[in-house]
Amino acid sequence: MSEARPSAPTAHAARSAVHWAAWALTLGMLPVLVVVPLTLHQQLTLSVAIFIAALVINRFAGRLATLALMFLSVTVSSRYLYWRLTDTMYMENVLDLVLAWGLLLAEIYAFLVLLLGYVQTAWPLGRTPAPLPADRASWPTVDVLIPTYNEPLSVVRPTVLAALAMDWPRDRLRVFVLDDGRRETFRAFCDEVGVTHVTRDNNRHAKAGNINAALRNTDGEFIAIFDCDHAPVRSFLQVTMGWFGRAPRLAMVQTPHYFYSPDPFEKNLGTFGTVPNEGELFYGLIQDGNDLWNAAFFCGSCAVLRRSACEQVGGIAVETVTEDAHTALKMHRAGHETAYLAIPQAAGLATESLSGHVGQRIRWARGMTQIFRTDNPLLGRGLSWAQRLCYLNAMLHFLYGLPRLIYLTAPLAYLVFGASVIHASAAMIFAYALPHIFHANLTNSRVQGRFRYLFWNEVYEAVLAWHIFRPTLVALFNPKAGAFNVTAKGGLIERRYFDTQIAKASIFLLALNFIGIGFGLWRLTWVDAERIATVWLNLAWTGYNLVILGACVAAANESRQMRTAHRVALQMPALLHLPGRAPIACRTFDFSTTGLAIDLPGDPHCAHGAAVGVSLFEGETEHRFPATVRFSRGGRMGLRFEGLTVAQEQALVRCTISRPDIWAERWGRHPRVGAHRVLAHIARISAVGFRDMFAHYRQAIVRRLQSPAAAGRAPQSEESS
Pathway, per UniProt (predicted)? Predict the structure, then answer.
């Protein structure tokens, strides 16, 4: 007689019981692993064993292995922090105590951010577009709002034309340019292309007030919002709108902010296209992780909002300068859902200068701190515990200013003052701290690898630390302090220069760390043998800080930006029309709103300024554009568009920046890179930063010596010059 097999429900129950028993055992062991006291050799043995296990686990694909790595990282970091709290805080004087607690609080902050980051990124949802109803007559009405204030028309024009090109029924799509600058040139352009130009008689509440004023005078069922430099692709609405029909409580669908121009870090450090930029981690991973917990944030652009949900929470939030995230928080408190699609469906311009970039980040940091004070996600009703943690981490992130400054100066406490900020031997610090650092880096490298390379976050934060520390501190005490500032886009940088105003904090920290190196070398000559290892440990830490700060200085060396229209690499079929000759089949190399470059099968020897034509294709439809030759050499020709009609401009947009695939195929393509290669790359950039800094100050000294005052002229002459 055959043995009876257990039923499916019974087998499922058995597997569930084993699953929960394994979790209970694992979580039960965690406190033991964290608090059990060990000798130095026992701690080293445990650390090596756990790290070997992590290396083995890292060889396996899948999310289960990622969760296991996160668990090991949390275990080792918790053990380190417990050791720091219980064994290393016995200080003999007030100076040691103050400095030690400063470092410990910075480490507690870093541990909380690490832990909350794991919660956010443990299981990215990976949402895909939902189909729309087959009957296009049932598709809802959408109002496209494009707020602008002081941006030039050349920046806004492509966005408006791209919005008009979106694939959506014409009778259900309306485009509004919300012009807070109240410019007649904008009104004339809007009339010419057939969109509505909207103004108001004040500028209260900046962008949020501009959008709210438009909400009171429009009636579309949904609202698509784009910053005036973010041009949508044709498929934007078809990709985003399907989820609203599936989820009646869905209030917002957000897509990534993709930038086709380099940000100041990428431009000044030469990393555009080779190193993930500062924002890719958020849009590539964190937002996708937030989506699992119904905590995706509204980011102010490239998003669709349900009008009824927006009106229910009083419109776009005006209480803080980060109106977008605050609006999403209000929607979540009201019981609405949000969604995130990690598919770039619009692209815009990054900030041109580092000073503009810093100003933008200051506004974000101040705004998130304002929300933390006035509408703290940990308090009040309407949020799940996971939503509270996701919002909390977003707000805590912008408080990194002081902790980062502490990390950049902490080793100086011992090297300069002889203060023991960690009351332990160098061997014990190695045994506890290195596993914490190694596991965090190993896990984050696996989780973030395509969207953020190791160590680069320290460069970004070090540049911004001093600048955001002050406004966030002020906002903690006075949330109403500070005003909204508009991020400049579309500007030019006519000459290369060193931004001493932005770099002065980094230079000051560099000077302090060089002083620390000097004191450390001095201590090596007389310190007793038992402390030699401690000196070397602090010297190594200081050396690492110098590498990071050198890269910060390099970022402040502004490169020229002379193009009014940024070039975008794109290869697609084209036809070159020369007078009296048959069309020549070719391919584009790159394009901008003002021209393009083409690769030809031969060299047609066209003179500079010659009038030609070039055809691009929208599916099977050919569009021909008049142009002049800017250069022609080696089978490549540069063309500048001349005298385009509005219809031709619209066709050009549809053939280029509105192509549905143009940005998505460039998204998240960075290869994973080993930590040693990343650190070597930053070290090379740092060396360039030191070279440029010294060259700048050498030139400044020479100019000073050659000034009229140095030549012995009268003081009045110096003042007048």
Answer: Glycan metabolism; bacterial cellulose biosynthesis
Phi-psi region of 499 (alpha: psi -120 to 50; beta: other; left: phi over 0): beta
Q: How many whole angstroms separate alpha carbon 573 and alpha carbon 589?
A: 10
CB-based contact 566:267 (threshold 8 Å):
no
CA of 637: how far to CAs of 249, 287, 581, 634, in Å? Answer: 53, 41, 17, 8
Look over the chain and give the mean of its residue pLDDT values, rounded to a whole number: 89
Residues serving a catalytic function are 180, 324
More confident of the two residues 561 and 642: 642
What SS3 class is residue 258?
strand
**For every residue of 106-163, which 3-state class applies, written as one string?**
HHHHHHHHHHHHHHHHCCCCCCCCCCCCCCHHHCCCEEEEEEECCCCHHHHHHHHHHH
Mean pLDDT calculated for residue range 603-621: 90
Count of CB atoms situated within 10 Å of the CB of 1: 3
In this prediction, residues 700-718 reach a mean pLDDT of 61
Burial class of residue 24, CB neighbours in 10 A (0-12, 13-18, 19+): exposed
Q: What kind and span of H or E run contains 446?
A: helix 426-448
- With beta carbons less than 8 A apart as the criterion, state whether 256 and 302 touch: yes
May I ask the CATH class of domain 136-352? alpha beta
Q: Which of 387, 352, 252, 234 is nearest to 307 (CA)?
A: 252
Q: What is the pLDDT of residue 721?
A: 27
Outline where 293-400 has alpha helix (H): 307-312, 323-333, 354-374, 385-397
Does the domain made of 571-655 have the CATH classification 3.40.462.10?
no
How far apart are alpha carbons 236 and 367 in whole angstroms?
A: 28
- On the CB side of 573, CA atoms within 13 Å amount to 10
In angstroms, the CA 516 to CA 538 distance is 9
pLDDT in tens, 272-328: 989 999 899 999 999 999 999 999 999 999 999 999 999 999 999 999 999 999 999
pTM of the predicted model as reported, rounded to 2 decimal places:
0.89
CA gap 542, 416 in Å, rounded: 12
Query: pLDDT tens for residues 115-138?
Result: 999 999 999 999 999 999 999 999
Other CB atoms within 10 Å distance of the CB of residue 357: 22
